[in-house]
Amino acid sequence: MKPNFKTTALAILVSLGAVACSSNSSHDGAQPVKVTKPAEATKPAEATKPVEATKPVEATKPVEATKPVEAIKPVEAAKFNFKKEATLANGKEWRYIDFSDTSIASIVSGLKDGIDRHITGSHGVGAGIINFNKLSNYSTGEFTGLDKDETYSLDNNVFINGLYYHFINQPYSTYGFFSNKKLSELTELGSSDSFYVAKKNSDVDQFEGVYSGDVIAKITVEGAGDIKEIVKNDGKVTLNVKHNSTNDKFMVSGSINSNTVGEVKLLATDFEYGSAKGIATLQGVSGDYSVSSANNYKEVVGDVKIHAGSVLRSDVASENTEVIGYDAVFGGQLK
C-alpha cells in the first residue's frame, strides 16, 4: 500500500509544479498591458491648434487699402492762409481798388506791383478804396452788402448812401460789381460797374488747362419806354487754354452758359503771358471780352460786354420787357 501513496503524492507534487509553472508563464505573457499607451496617441489636443489657422485677422488688413485719404487732399486746399496770401512781399495788401489811382482811371487795365486791376467803362479819378479783404473778413466766397465806412466818389459822383457791392473772392483773385444803387434791384441805367483784381503769375511756364467758375452779370432791360439794369448771379463759365503748335502760342476760348440769355461764345484769341482780349458773340450780336490769369495760371478772371442795341431776349423780369444789353464778370479755377 505504501508505494501507492508515494505515487499519489508524487503526482500531486508534479501537478502543483505544473500549476506553478503555468502561473508564472501567464504572468510573463501579461506584460503587453504596457502597450496600452494609447493615452499618448490621444495627444490630438495639439492638433487642435487650428486657432492659429484662424489668423485671417491678418488678411483683414484692407485697412491699408483705405488710404484714399491721401487722395482727399482738399486738406491741402484747407491749408490756404488767406491773411498770409493777402499781402505782398513788401507787406502791403493787394486785394483792393483805389478810385484815386490814376493807373486805372481811364480804365483799361492797370498792372501795378504784379497786380492786374480792371474796371469796366471810362472814369475820371475819384476817391475811396474798396478793400475786399475787409469786406470779406479775409475769406474766400461770395459777398454782397453796403459799405458806409468809406467815403466813395467817382466821376464827381459822391456815393452818398455808401457803396453797394457784389463780389467773389477766389484764393488769388476777386471779381464783381459795385454801385451807388442796390445791385439786386432794377435801377437806373449806368449806376454799376464791373471789376476784377488778379495777383499775377511768377516766372513759371504756361500750360494747357480747363477752367470753370461762376458768372455775375448786369442785365440791361427796356420796357414801357424805360431802360434799367439789374446785377445778379447768372450761370457758369468754361475756358479752355491750348497750345497752338502752328505759331507756338497759347490760345484761350470758351463760353458762358447764361441763365438769362443763353450761350455767350468767347472766341479763340492769343493768351500769351496769361492775358487776353477777344471777341464775344451772343445770338449773332458781337461784343468784347478780356481774361487775366492768376496764381501761376491756376485761376482766371475776366469780363464780357455785348454791345447794346439789339434785343437779346424778350419777356424778362416782367411782360413787355426786353434784354438789350449784357455785361458780366467771371472767374474760374483750374480743373
Query: Termini separation (Å)?
Result: 137 Å
Total helical segments: 8
Gyration radius (Cα, Å) is 46 Å
Task: Please list the strands of the largest sheet in the order they lie side by side.
Answer: 12-13-14-15-16-17-18-20
Task: Based on Cα principal axes, name the global outline.
Answer: globular
Beta content: 35-45%
What would you call the structural class?
alpha+beta
User: What is the helix/strand order?
Assistant: HHHHHHHEEEEHEEEEEEEEEEEEEEEE
Helical amount among residues, as a percent range?
A: 10-25%
Point out poorly predicted stretches: 1-39, 41-45, 63-77, 105-109
Task: Please describe the biggest sheet, giving its number of strands, its sense, and whether it closes into a barrel.
Answer: 8 strands, antiparallel, barrel
Oligomer: single chain
How many strand units? 20
**Overall pLDDT:** 78
Description:
The chain is of the alpha+beta class and 335 residues long. Helix content is 17%, strand content 43%. Strand 12 (209-223) and strand 13 (226-244) form a beta hairpin. The longest helix has 28 residues, at 2-29. It is globular.
Describe this protein with a few key phrases:
335 residues; alpha+beta; 8-stranded antiparallel barrel; 6-stranded antiparallel beta sheet; 8 helices; 20 strands; 43% strand; globular; disordered N terminus
Write the layout of secondary structure elements.
Blueprint: H1 2-29, H2 38-41, H3 44-47, H4 50-53, H5 56-59, H6 74-78, H7 82-85, E1 96-98, E2 110-112, E3 115-119, E4 129-131, H8 132-135, E5 141-147, E6 153-154, E7 157-158, E8 163-170, E9 173-179, E10 187-188, E11 192-199, E12 209-223, E13 226-244, E14 249-258, E15 262-270, E16 275-282, E17 285-294, E18 299-306, E19 313-314, E20 321-334
Antiparallel strand pairs: 1-4, 2-3, 3-11, 5-8, 6-7, 8-9, 9-11, 10-13, 12-13, 12-20, 13-14, 14-15, 15-16, 16-17, 17-18, 18-20, 19-20
